[in-house]
Request: fold
Amino acid sequence: MIGLAADQVAKHFAIELLPPGEPVKILGDVLIFQLVFNPGAAFSFGSGVTWLFTIALAAVAIAILIVAWRIRSRGWAITLGLLLAGVLGNLSDRLFREPGFPVGHVVDYISTPWLMPAIYNIADMFIVSSMIVVAILVLRGFNLDGTRQVSPPKSGSTVGTAASVADDGEAAPDGAAETQR
Reply:
């Protein structure tokens, strides 16, 4: 919940200290703070259906909580914790900010025009970075329970197929490997 707190505290200070809509250069054109209230998703896409984003964020939060009990991997726990923090950060804006429940506008204030032409927040950074790590974990075969899925051997290869050989030295039922005595 540290991530959620960091997001909400940063949004509080952005609202209190930044003039709405006016760019404030922090590091020249590298980092600019510009307070906007976003009714939609990225690039204000879907601003007319804000309530759908509220439902989607709530569904993702619930899904993470449902699978949380199966997590035995530190990498998955940290990654899904960051994703949950980001989702809850933006969901709380949708639920509790103007114009009202469940169509509140998300507070965005970070602009890095050299990287992307968007204004975003800490919750968005948590969501994007955690989704990148989720893709890496899945592609590398790391399971939620801490085990790692080993890729099957290439066709025609007997290297690494000892596990498919029966105890009596005969090929396993799938015929994947043979042993010689």
About this structure: Confidence is low (pLDDT under 50) at residues 159-181. The longest helix spans residues 74-96. The CA atoms of residues 101 and 143 lie 37 Å apart. The helical segments are 2-17, 50-67, 74-96, 122-139.
